[in-house]
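User: Here's a chain of 367 residues. Predict its fold as tokens.
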Amino acid sequence: MSSGEVLDKNKLQSQTIDALRFPLAVCVVFIHSFGAALPSVGGLWWQNGFDLSDFFRVTFSLVLPQMAVPVFFVISGYLFFCKVDQLTFQVYAQKIKKRFKTLFVPYILWITIALAYVFAVFTVKGNFGGFFDLVREKGLSLYWNCIQWGEDNYNWIGGQKIMTSPYLIPFWFIRDLIVMSLISPLIYVLVRKGRVCWLALLSFCYVSGIWVTVPGLTISTVFYFSVGAYFGIYKIAFAEKFWSWNKKGLAVVYVVLLCAEIVFGGTSSNIGGIVYPFFIMSAVVFTIGTFYGIVKHGRLKKIFSNKTVKNSNFFIYATHNIMIVPQCSAVTNKLLILARGTPTGFAVPSHAAACGCGVRRFVCADA
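Assistant: Prediction complete.
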């Protein structure tokens, strides 16, 4: 392969990653915009009658956008190692220094902002002491693992698949990336020495759910970050690779698994929970590969090269769960005539994403 072809592939991969960022951020908004999970009725959400609002909740919250965070992990793992020929202590120190600025500082800052926002809400509602009761009860865990869920989900051997997060729930992703950065030398050695065997072991743990419950070491994080690290360490253009897999039939597998997950309601049913990891793995490949194909054919470039769109990604991610979505939901509920069986929930995340872009442009106009 000529150097020109390598440069073209690297350029296309970089453009694909840029094109993915904003849609993935919007997907995270959709995940958190449709209320509580569906109650399972014999494992089938439609068993007592089909409801259009439940269909939209399942499709656009519990299923379709769920690949967003795993794709982010793959990209993060790749970008961490793609320019590293040898992970020396000096290279590691430079990486950690950079991640301190780009991950740790925003992590602490945005959780603090979220807590300040909650303090303001408590104060406005006249419950001034409620915030300090929260701080006394949770302490520093507000910044690490104060929220827990997944007690009703079990792995293949009957253990609970518990997830935790800091007070700003979406930031479990940032927390886990911080941990991955710190243990990157271990990931580097395991990927270099174990190669596909290491990924195969992780994939088994991911599918089976058999893993340790340690905040910051979520199996989805370790697995997908390691996948990205593998492509980065061995300098493989993963986007092009995934595009070729799509054309060889993986796209069909993805569509079949997508339909199955919608029918079984994602992880809200036992069968959906079993299918879920296989669906997400196919969705990660399909999403990255599809965007690569679109970018390769010259589409999306104008949209996602827009400065406002590019700069809005993290802002939307950081603020949607506690600020943007609740406010947009209140506004949307006043503007729309809400009726059982209508897909009004779709308007909330769409409105939230649009407002996120607008607010981000106003707040950071000189950035």
